[in-house]
Amino acid sequence: MKNLLPVLSLLFCSFLIAQKDFEKTELAILPGSELIINGSTNVNNFHCRFDIDLISEARKVNFTMEDSCIWVKDLVLRLDTSGFDCRNKRMNEDFQDLLMFDTYPEIHISIDKIQIISEQYARAFIKVHLAGQNNFYELPVKTERNRYEGKLKLNIRDFGLEPPKKALGLIQVDEEIEIAFNLIVSGL
Fold first, then answer.
1. pTM for this predicted structure
2. Domain count within the chain
3. Phi, psi of 35, deg, nearest 5
4. CATH number at residue 49
5. Which of 14, 39, 46, 82 could bond to 177 as cystine, CB 3.0-4.6 Å?
6. What is the domain extent for residue 165?
7. Contact by Cβ (8 Å): 182, 48
8. Helices (DSSP H) in the chain: which residue ranges?
9. Distances (CA, A) of 13 to 8, 25, 61, 91, 125
10. Could you name the domain of life of the organism this protein comes from (predicted)?
11. Contact partners, residue 172, CB within 8 Å, separation at least 6
12. Structure confidence by residue, pLDDT tens digits, 147-187
């Protein structure tokens, strides 16, 4: 139920802007950018860093501005789950197993709308497609020139995933993870 309001508002607003003219631009995520999934167990923390080179190619994006919002069409980051490095071969395998890599080799993050709050802050409205399920989120984003930084906390159970247990249940992964990003983008 908590995800219903953002879905309905996005659908309604998408209908309203369907008649608008969209401008085109080309965006690229530049070297020096970071995307990290942080998590923890009852014993330790883990940090799985994504290889930004896998998503650094330039892409054409359609957008329109209305009031303090930028509406975006077709801006999807496709993250190959094998592109995450947890700095340990066994952890990499466990992480891919958790994300159901064999069945769902990619995580999709769609950016639907960006609400400009000030010169330094915005609010992004995104859809995360993980393990065959979609969830919608709003998240604050710190902006500085062409750098966009933020964190998104999500519960893996919202995607039908079960937190794994290791060592006969002695080590348990927390169900909440954090996606931290610090993206340098050209073209905006």
1. 0.82
2. 1
3. -140, 115
4. 2.40.128.110
5. 39
6. 4-186
7. no
8. 4-17, 89-98
9. 8, 22, 18, 41, 12
10. Bacteria
11. 41, 42, 163, 164, 165, 166
12. 999 999 999 999 999 887 776 666 788 999 999 999 999 87
